[in-house]
Amino acid sequence: DGGITQSPKYLFRKEGQNVTLSCEQNLNHDAMYWYRQDPGQGLRLIYYSQIVNDFQKGDIAEGYSVSREKKESFPLTVTSAQKNPTAFYLCASSQGAEAKNIQYFGAGTRLSVL
Amino acid sequence: AQKITQTQPGMFVQEKEAVTLDCTYDTSDQSYGLFWYKQPSSGEMIFLIYQGSYDEQNATEGRYSLNFQKARKSANLVISASQLGDSAMYFCAMSPYRFNQFYFGTGTSLTVIP
Fold first, then answer.
1. Closest partner CB to B33 (pick from A96, A101, A110)
2. Of the candidate ranges A53-67, A86-100, B26-40, B49-63, the one whose mean pLDDT is the lowest
3. What is the 3-state secondary structure (H, E, C) of chain A?
4. Which of residues 7-66 of A touch B (CB under 8 A)?
5. Residue B101: which pLDDT band, with cuts at 50, 70 and 90?
6. Contact status of A71 with chain B (Cβ, < 8 Å)
7. Chain A: residue nearest B42 by CA?
């Protein structure tokens, strides 16, 4: 089955700690994305990557970092600089730069602060 | 700047009836795609339907149709013959063709009543 796998489903962070959220896709998609969703809100873009070894900041990149060393993987690190990390994080992928650029999503990771 | 507006925070519909979820958008781009996603309580975003800005006919996918009025910048989702499983959050999104970034509305919560 092709799809996007996010892990873990739930994650807890202590003060001053960095945590990494995993996102893996086997759809052979070029582009991958990270979104943050707060209660009652839409999705806001954190980072996106259109090709391996390249990524761009989205609207709310501060306090987050990413890497794209493999086409299949796009991990997100929530650093200690992110003062309000409690949220639902969604990873997505798409074919890339084409008109009908449908994004397909993983099941999400819910991050809470201890 | 791109902006998506969903003015209905919550909607109720009787089972087997049709319901329309509103979405308006603001963009200066001429070429763009419009998307609707469903988010059940589990959290995953499920792609429902796509409409291109140059498509002359309204998109349909099974019980979902998109009422596209380009001049009014409106892209309403119509769900026919509602089912209990349709109860979820619904998000409208827009993506200009010149880059892969999605812009999401704040969503509409739909509850189907037996």
1. A101
2. A86-100
3. CCCEEEECCEEEECCCCCEEEEEEECCCCCEEEEEEECCCCCEEEEEEEEECCEEEECCCCCCEEECCCECCECCEEECCCCCCCCEEEEEEEECCCCCCCCCEECCCEEEEEC
4. 31, 33, 40-45, 48, 50, 58
5. confident
6. no
7. A107
